[in-house]
Amino acid sequence: MKTSILFLLCVLLTLQSCLKDDIGNSNQDVFQFIWDDMDQKYGGFAARGIDWDAAYRTYSPMAAAAETELDLFDACAEMIDILDDQHVFIYSNNLDTGFASGKKGDEVIAELGFDASVVTRNYVEVIDSIVVEDESFLYGTVSNDNIGYIYIPNFGFEDVRWFEEIDDILFQLKDTEGLILDLRNNGGGSPIIDRYLASRFVLEEKFVFSIQTRNGPERTDFDDPIQYFARQEGANPYTKSTVLLINHSTVSAGEEFALFLETQPHVTVVGDTTSNAFATETFVRLLPNSWELGFPAQLYLYPDGSSPEGVGIIPDIYLRNDTLDIQNGIDRVLEKGIDLL
Fold first, then answer.
1. Cα(109)–Cα(18) distance, rounded to whole angstroms?
2. Are 238 and 170 in contact, with CB atoms under 8 Å apart?
């Protein structure tokens, strides 16, 4: 689910998509184009501590020695995987194979540490749910407690403007003593939607982050930063004690949502560090060998100039579920959130 949302987002938020017909089809031609294009446009090298020149020296010989398209694909996939950025991807139409950087062991383990059905069976009395990108956005109250619960599986696009239901939902939960916002395994989606929803949980206006976009061939070439603020909006904002649950499969727009709320004095963030894939506006290239290459040109920055890229959102209280717990119907992260309220 996560990968499909990220790929969809790359398409929907494309800054530039073009056919590169001025390069050859040799292994070295394809590898060189991928390396050069990212070298001149990718925004996250410094924030992620990546030596891109060293990557060339390591992976160029592997690409040159590739005997099949799959061998070449694997060499290029290994190279982009060092970025640990799920918004960087390659896709081969010939092989019908795609690869997103950073989606590997730790993300897979994190996904297994959460199951929404465990929540609904054992912890929460559901009031209603809405299908969004084949997953269920749902809300209700914690069983035997006056605590609200909202699970947001993604910030995806749908024909129905599901996110506009939030004001009515918060009116239904207005008499609860506290709220749990669950973003575990949130696969990302639209920044427009995550910002719309986040504004309903803002107590204090805060300068949260800025975004710069790569605008030149040097790795330090960026335009002036655009600042983003947490501001309260909506008819029924919820500003009582709130616990935000995250894990290492909280990605992209899910992470941006957490950026807004981690600044708020009434919000406690519980769980695991998020995936660290923030920048979303993506270049998508179609190469002559029928490969697609996508990567972001943006860089997210905290007000102090540091970046969450390559780090993720760090929770106030670090806690992970064991997969055996989930198999036994136990969600210790959710239980911690309930205890805090």
1. 36
2. yes
- pTM reported for the whole predicted model: 0.90
Q: How many Å apart are CA 307 and CA 87, to the nearest integer?
A: 16
Residue pair 271/246 in contact by the 8 Å Cβ criterion: yes
* Ordered DSSP codes for 44-109: -TTTTT--HHHHHHHHHHHHHT--SHHHHHHHHHHHHHTT--TT-EEEETTTTEEEETT-SHHHHH
Per-residue pLDDT of the chain (341 residues; tens, 9 = 90+): 444 444 444 444 443 444 444 455 688 899 999 999 999 999 999 999 999 999 999 999 999 999 999 999 999 999 999 999 999 999 999 899 999 998 776 777 888 999 999 999 999 999 999 888 888 999 999 999 999 999 999 999 766 789 999 999 999 999 999 999 999 999 999 999 999 999 999 999 999 999 999 999 999 999 999 999 999 999 999 999 999 999 999 999 999 999 999 999 999 999 999 999 998 767 788 887 889 999 999 999 999 999 999 999 999 999 999 989 999 999 999 999 999 99
Give the contacts of 79 (CB within 8 A, at least 6 positions apart): 34, 35, 55, 58, 59
Pairing, β 178-182 against β 147-151: parallel
Q: Is 164 in contact with 226 (CB distance < 8 Å)?
A: no
Look up residue 162 and give its DSSP letter.
Answer: G
Three-state DSSP class for 18? Answer: strand
